Amino acid sequence: MTESLIANDAKKIVEQHLDQLGQPKAHILSSEEKQHKFALIADELKRQDAVLVAHYYCDPEIQELAELTGGCVSDSLEMARFGRDHPATTLVVAGVKFMGETSKILSPNKTVLMPTLEATCSLDLGCPIDEFSTFCDAHPDHTVVVYANTSAAVKARADWVVTSSCAVEIIEHLDSQGEKIIWAPDQHLGRYIQKKTGAEMLLWDGSCIVHEEFRSRGIAKMKALYPDAAVLVHPESPESVIDIADAVGSTSQLIKAAQTLPHKQMIVATDRGIFYKMQQAAPDKELIEAPTAGEGATCRSCAHCPWMAMNELDAILHVLQHKDQQIFVDEALRVRAKLPLDRMLDFTANMKR
Ligand code: SF4
């Protein structure tokens, strides 16, 4: 069993991108303003035969709007499935760009709009196709498994796409077939899976700027204040944070853990956008934000993804009216990228049976 980390410039690329990122607007809507915007968007969704598909990390009002208008709020796997299976001819994907691309790959005949195409992901940014492809070419005896948080081009280079809700099971399956694996781009999730499955994996060294900020020492201090609290951790977090968790899992799995664990308090180490659905699912639990490295100059995210925060109500209305933030994927690339995505969807459909 081996695990080796592939060095690349992911961190530098992401830092440069963040330096250019504008700050999201801090304006808090009054209840009247919010209802007014909701009504305008709901009308427009109906007129355009569109449905809103939102990720758990979007701001609460976007999640609320998706629920109220018959859309969905979920993790990236369920977003992809929901968009594919919903009869609407237009999908408005509130999330980050790879989620819009995944929707387009699975639903080529639908119009896929996003509030902004500027919303990206440090994992996607840190895994450029040329470098990644060169690396894969150098290891032709490895099966290429990529996380959903990648571009369409990287997916097209892969044998499998996975999300954090099915990654362990898929790697276990591949390992049982004796396959050696290239894993990209999240090194922390890759290391977690490697530890759980014992699979032979080469890890790309990308990371999520949100989860990377969580620190075990800060969480231990918080545990001293809330000794009876459970610690819920997303596996994109550093290993030392995962090691002190009571539950480790994807966003959907963490929401389930908040419901089912007997603890009354939960220290939650993932993007704070999840609190909206987690509190709905576990109304009697007290949810506490896990501390980040933050409060100082090094924190670039402080438990909220700067790209997810770019999804705003005004931008949803604008894109429905103007269709100027639309996802297009080259057809040959789309067909190639669909293969590993379909593999994942088929595998997870069988997991459910
Ligand atoms: S929270 Fe992390 S993994 Fe998710 S979109 Fe933001 S940067 Fe990417």
Automatic annotation (TrEMBL):
A GO-annotated cellular component: cytosol
Domain of life: Bacteria
Binding sites annotated in the UniProt record for iminosuccinate: 55, 76, 147-149, 164, 234-236, 251
Reactions listed under catalytic activity: iminosuccinate + dihydroxyacetone phosphate = quinolinate + phosphate + 2 H2O + H(+)
Entry EC number(s): 2.5.1.72
Details of cofactor binding: Binds 1 [4Fe-4S] cluster per subunit.
SUPFAM superfamilies per UniProt: NadA-like (SSF142754)
Pathway linked to the protein: Cofactor biosynthesis; NAD(+) biosynthesis; quinolinate from iminoaspartate: step 1/1
InterPro entries, per the entry: NadA, NadA_sf, Quinolinate_synth_A_type1
Keyword vocabulary terms for this entry: 4Fe-4S, Cytoplasm, Iron, Iron-sulfur, Metal-binding, Pyridine nucleotide biosynthesis, Transferase
Intracellular or extracellular location(s): Cytoplasm
Biological process according to GO: 'de novo' NAD+ biosynthetic process from L-aspartate
UniProt keyword Transferase present: yes
Binding site for [4Fe-4S] cluster: 121, 208, 305
Keyword Transferase: yes
One Pfam family named in its UniProt record: NadA
Enzyme class (EC, first level): transferase
Cofactors, names only: [4Fe-4S] cluster
Gene Ontology MF: a single term: 4 iron, 4 sulfur cluster binding
Major localization class: cytoplasm
HAMAP family: NadA_type1
Purpose of the protein: Catalyzes the condensation of iminoaspartate with dihydroxyacetone phosphate to form quinolinate.
Family: Belongs to the quinolinate synthase family. Type 1 subfamily.
UniProt protein name: Quinolinate synthase
Gene name for this UniProt entry: nadA
